[in-house]
Design a protein that fits this description.
alpha/beta, binds nicotinamide-adenine-dinucleotide
Length: 332
């Protein structure tokens, strides 16, 4: 068996604090996995002037999976070289096109699959001579097909219901999206498909999120809807994500940012980072049993040792210790 390597990118702000807990959990749960660490974001700008240094990118490419903390620092808000550029470059360099955003709480269990490296965020933009500013949204059918196929496969492994979200009554790219979904559907006869317009989808997600199983949508709609889904299932501080490519390593990271307002105080909630670690175990290392054990241990710690954002008083380290203790108990 080839060596499995996880590259840890602690990032900025609360990143190193929550990354420490993820490292300790991985060391306990998967001691055979090699762990390495590199700089990204503001920490990398300070060290070498680049938010994604060449040696970080090389190490990411060589890893089995990448576990990333948040990046961002108010010091660089107005700078030309910004921490967040490192993240966008990393996603594009690894072609991590399928962004998985699970949102689970009570009877709600929805998986949003968002296209991550195309559409409005990657199209041509600029300013014309007359002062008009423009962004453009473009999709090639192949770009749509690969993420849609991945979403069908994920829906098949869940409850078998896929909702494709678009704005086909207005946008040409959405009409392409809908056509590609319909063309691929016969490959997955055991998965039911429904199309929903994005404005209606936002309302349905806010009011009756339990109706959804798996959702697939383009980059900007997915960006907005996945934050909405996170909000209705406990908030951004709890939400993990996985960004997967076809053959290279995936990127696993919390949805929240670097939380500069609480950084350095040891009170950040490591739940999103630990849930991202569970996604890494499942999708990055192919270890669903360890992933499920970690997800259960995190659930347990949320009720036994809640951090301040959850109304409790546990520190980041105390929450992490509660997770590891629970893992040890269930493994015994
Ligand atoms: P944020 O997510 O960092 O913080 C929003 C609020 O949530 C803050 O009050 C913060 O204290 C709280 N919060 C966030 N994570 C928490 C945690 N783990 N435990 C407890 N509370 C938590 O969003 P922001 O303030 O808009 O952004 C701060 C920086 O992060 C910016 O530079 C932004 O660009 C960056 N950012 C990075 C990513 C990423 O790396 N993927 C994502 C979003 C924002």
């Amino acid at each position: 068996m080839p060596n499995l390597t996880v590259l840890l990118l602690p990032g900025d702000g609360v990143g190193p604090e929550v990354a420490r807990e993820a490292r300790l959990v991985l060391e306990q749960l998967a001691p055979d996995v090699e762990l390495a660490e590199r700089l990204i974001g503001a920490a990398a700008i300070r060290a070498v002037g680049d938010p994604l240094p060449a040696d970080t990118l090389d190490a990411c490419r060589d890893a089995t999976a990448v576990l990333k903390g948040p990046v961002g620092d108010p010091e660089f808000d107005a700078a030309d070289v910004r921490p967040e550029q490192g993240l966008l470059r990393l996603r594009a360099a690894l072609d991590a096109y399928a962004n998985l955003r699970p949102a689970v709480l009570g009877d709600v269990d929805v998986l949003i699959v968002r296209e991550l490296v195309g559409g409005l965020y990657f199209g041509a933009s600029g300013v014309r001579d007359d002062g008009t500013v423009f962004d453009t949204c473009e999709y090639h059918p192949d770009q749509v097909a690969r993420v849609v196929r991945r979403a069908f496969a994920l829906a098949r492994s869940r409850r078998g219901a896929l909702t494709s979200i678009d704005k086909a009554n207005v946008l040409e790219t959405s009409r392409l999206w809908r056509r590609v979904v319909n063309e691929i559907a016969p490959e997955f006869p055991d998965v039911s498909v429904e199309h929903m317009l994005v404005d209606n989808a936002a309302m349905q997600l806010a009011t009756t999120p339990q109706q959804f199983d798996t959702i697939v949508t383009e980059n900007m709609f997915g960006d907005i809807l996945s934050d909405l889904a996170a909000a209705v299932t406990g908030g951004l501080g709890l939400a993990p994500s996985a960004s997967l490519s076809d053959s290279g390593p995936g990127i696993f990271e919390p949805v929240h940012g670097s939380a500069p307002d609480i950084a350095g105080r040891g009170i950040a909630n490591p739940t999103a980072m630990l849930r991202s670690t569970a996604l890494l175990l499942e999708h990055g290392l192919g270890r669903p049993d360890e992933a499920a054990a970690l997800a259960r241990a995190v659930e347990h710690a949320i009720s036994s040792s809640p951090t301040r954002d959850l109304g409790g008083s546990a520190s980041t380290a105390e929450f992490g210790a509660a997770v590891r203790e629970q893992l040890a108990l269930t493994a015994a």
